[in-house]
């Protein structure tokens, strides 16, 4: 299909493939085109596991990865203008709304706050169904979602594996350290959470144990 669209001549070729993770074995296809030379390939995808495994190994030193984050405040305002949405004259009120509604572009299309929150809830659900579930083996999904909710509700606070374990022991739920650590790592890989390690200024060492987790978007907390 791609070959039929490419004009075979001496001109340099730019190949763009969107949502590439939907193509089984895409790594081999992309590598084959790269080996032909005289081509620059751009691949995009909404799957956070896109640049893992075989593709990373084959493209080491030959790729540039650009991570797309939710809209920042300035982009959020520009997007509202694009969708012809009303912008409050008081920029501080507008910023408060941005913190609650978040920077997912799709939320701007909705006027009702409940619709916005349902949209964000569906985004998180899709991340679990399409990204996490297909790449990770999680035996107890209820416990996974419970830990996800715990960290989201405590974002920006000092958290450790032991503090999470202690909380679950207080409600008579037994869970080992490795499971908690693995679930947190999965949430990081899925780009829902970003970890910030504690750092000792004097020794210039990262302090193991407690750390802070921040959300990819504040709307995740409010939803």
Molecular structure report:
The protein is α+β, with helices and mostly antiparallel strands and 223 residues long. Among the domains are: 2-58, no CATH class; 138-218, Winged helix-like DNA-binding domain superfamily/Winged helix DNA-binding domain (Arc Repressor Mutant, subunit A). It has helices at residues 2-5, 26-36, 54-58, 73-82, 91-101, 113-135, 141-153, 161-170, 177-189, 219-222; strands at 13-17, 39-43, 158-159, 193-200, 205-215. The chain has a three-stranded antiparallel sheet. The chain has a two-stranded parallel ribbon with strand order 1-2. A hairpin with a 4-residue loop joins β4 (193-200) and β5 (205-215). The longest helix has 23 residues, at 113-135. It starts with a helix and ends with a helix.
Question: How would you summarize the topology of this molecule?
Answer:
Elements: H1 2-5, E1 13-17, H2 26-36, E2 39-43, H3 54-58, H4 73-82, H5 91-101, H6 113-135, H7 141-153, E3 158-159, H8 161-170, H9 177-189, E4 193-200, E5 205-215, H10 219-222
Parallel strand pairs: 1-2
Antiparallel strand pairs: 3-5, 4-5
Characterize the biggest β-sheet.
Answer: 3 strands, antiparallel
Query: In which range does the helix fraction lie?
Result: 40-55%
The fourth-level CATH homologous superfamily of the domain at 138-218 is: Winged helix-like DNA-binding domain superfamily/Winged helix DNA-binding domain
Question: What strand line-up does the widest sheet have?
Answer: 3-5-4
Give the SSE order as H and E letters: HEHEHHHHHEHHEEH
Q: Report the sheet-strand fraction.
A: 5-15%
Shape, principal axes of CA atoms: globular
Q: Might you state the CATH topology name of the domain at 138-218?
A: Arc Repressor Mutant, subunit A
Number of helical segments? Answer: 10
The Rg value, from CA coordinates, equals 21 Å
The unreliable regions are none
Give the CATH level 1 class of the domain at 138-218: Mainly Alpha
Average predicted local confidence, pLDDT: 84
What is the terminal-to-terminal distance?
A: 42 Å
